[in-house]
Design brief:
isomerase; 10 helices; single chain; IolE/XylAMocC-like; isomerase activity; Xyl_isomerase-like_sf; Xylose isomerase-like TIM barrel; eight-stranded parallel beta barrel
């Protein structure tokens, strides 16, 4: 298993401490965020780059540009600013999430947004990681639709998919696209009472034996189909963020996943 770490896995840690924890876990690939915690709003890209280089960390993504598929208002300016930041700090990709408030966004608008974002990413040598969200209110739930839009936008060399095991399950998606997948987010849901339709980010914990999202089956399938990229921990649940020893909790989940595989 090639593990990566999203800062949401231990958001109370400073960036430097988060990098140090990741290295202790044998992980050198990390994702920084513009929320929870807002690294982009609290550190300069030069500071982030220096901290990463000091620990031998590769910044695989900044998470996330939202809502990327509604190319209006301040989004173009925010997209360019985030891309500038990514280039300056040494990040490889931007995670791009669709509108998620129950408003429909047409396929044509999705394609137009991908076309508009493409030169911004290309000019800075960045990959766009398109992440369909499986929530019932999401305007882009299926990876198959994202791929169709990427092709329509001529973005095959610019964009990859984010396969999120949580959103894959929520969208009842059965197809896997390893050749399109640039990164995988992993998290589990263990609450036995919440229905799939009612699952939210707050239910997302570390993967263990009580997981309801079939993370192990998804990982096995991706590997069997040829995916060789990283699996990045992205738990949003408060109980994960409040643990006194996040490194130990993450190690336990890593050991469980590896043992199952």
């Amino acid at each position: 298993m090639r593990y990566a770490m999203n800062h949401i896995a231990a958001p109370k840690l400073s960036l430097e401490d988060f990098f140090a924890m990741s290295k202790e876990l044998g992980i050198s690939e990390v994702e920084i965020r513009n929320d929870l915690p807002d690294i982009l709003g609290s550190m300069t890209p030069a500071e982030v780059k220096a901290a990463a280089e000091a620990q031998g960390i590769t910044l695989i993504s900044i998470n996330a540009l939202y809502p990327f598929n509604v190319w209006s208002g301040d989004l173009p300016a925010r997209a360019q600013a985030m891309a500038d930041y990514a280039q300056a700090c040494g990040a490889k990709a931007l995670v791009m999430c669709p509108l998620n408030d129950g408003t429909e966004v047409s396929f044509e608008d999705l394609v137009a947004a991908l076309k508009a974002m493409k030169p911004i990413l290309d000019a800075r040598g960045l990959t766009g990681l398109v992440e369909p969200l499986g929530f019932p209110v999401s305007s882009l739930r299926k990876k198959s639709v994202a791929i169709e839009a990427i092709k329509a936008a001529g973005g095959e060399s610019t964009y990859k998919l984010m396969h999120d095991t949580f959103h894959h399950h929520l969208a009842s998606e059965t197809e896997f696209f390893p050749e399109w997948t640039g990164l995988v987010h992993i998290s589990g849901v263990t609450d036995p009472d919440v229905t799939v339709a009612d699952m939210l980010d707050g239910h997302r914990v570390l993967v263990d034996g009580a997981d309801r999202l079939e993370n192990i089956a998804q990982i096995r399938k991706l590997a069997a189909l040829g995916y060789e990229g990283a699996y990045s921990f992205e738990p949003f649940a408060t109980e994960v963020h409040e643990v006194s020893d996040p490194q130990a909790a993450l190690r336990e989940s890593m050991d469980y996943i590896s043992a199952q595989l």
